[in-house]
Amino acid sequence: MPRAVFPNRILPYALLAPQVAITLVFFYWPASQALYQSTLRQDPFGLKTRFVGLENFEAVLSDPSYLNAIETTLIFSLATAALAMALALLFASAAEKVIAGKGLYRTLMIWPYAVAPAVAGLLWLFMFNPTMGTFAYILRRSGIPWDPLLDGNQAMLLVIFAAAWKQISYNFLFFVAAMQSIPRSLIEAAAIDGARSTKRFWTIVFPLIAPTTFFLLVVNTVYAFFDTFGIIDAVTAGGPAKATETLVYKVYNDGFVNLDLGGSAAQSVILMAIVIALTAIQFRYVERKVHYG
């Protein structure tokens, strides 16, 4: 394999400098500031600051509302990732079977990803608003007392569906690309041997797209933890009665609304540690079942 040779020793570092600068400025510097601020206690106006060490972490971890936010986040994240990936895989499989209008079908499936999270949340809020939503009216006529503004379980279902709908297009793109890379000869040989479409999918297609599935599992986990803030803020604002207050929304609520800057910084550090731990667990145990051909 030919090796790249740089005649100038400074050139490789010059090419890497922009990316290194962006990483330092937009990741390591904010992370270090959050870690530093988590050890401080200050008034809302920043006039008085006192070093308190790990007291903010102790207060956060002993707060029942924070423990409730952890439980809410786990339920929300697992449900959102599972629903978004399952539906995307189903639609990608259906797209491979479409003969006429396949390009149009794929384009329509991709469009929702261009919608901003807050706009996606408002769309679902309008559709399921208990006073003027079309689908809310259909549910009430069907005998279902629908009111996510008062019922915490219904509010959780609404934000899960809204967040999953926003992410389906992203997953759909990767699943379609992965399926297109599978040699058609393998599927045709299985069909000749008498294997039905369901058998071919679980024995040939799904194992071969395992690397893509694992990648999307990590991406969807991070998405559910961080990128769903706009949807939750637009749909429920963490309510009712904190039923949909996830960890990332609690960081915002305590820091920007209640002005507990030290506690909010401590929560952001804990949230970052949780996501890093979950990602490490996924790579440590889930990746064992992934075969990279």
From TrEMBL:
InterPro entries: MetI-like, MetI-like_sf, UgpAE/MalFG_permease. It is a multi-pass membrane protein. It is found in: Cell inner membrane; Cell membrane. It holds the Pfam family BPD_transp_1. Residues 70-282 form the ABC transmembrane type-1 domain. The chain crosses the membrane at residues 12-31, 74-95, 107-127, 155-180, 201-226, 265-286. It comes from the Bacteria. Coiled coil: none annotated. The keyword Membrane applies. One of its GO terms (cellular component) is plasma membrane. The keyword Transmembrane applies. GO terms for biological process: transmembrane transport. Its main location: membrane. Keywords: Cell inner membrane, Cell membrane, Membrane, Transmembrane, Transmembrane helix, Transport. NCBIfam families: PRK10561.1. The complex is composed of two ATP-binding proteins (UgpC), two transmembrane proteins (UgpA and UgpE) and a solute-binding protein (UgpB). Part of the ABC transporter complex UgpBAEC involved in sn-glycerol-3-phosphate (G3P) import. Probably responsible for the translocation of the substrate across the membrane. Belongs to the binding-protein-dependent transport system permease family. This is sn-glycerol-3-phosphate transport system permease protein UgpA.
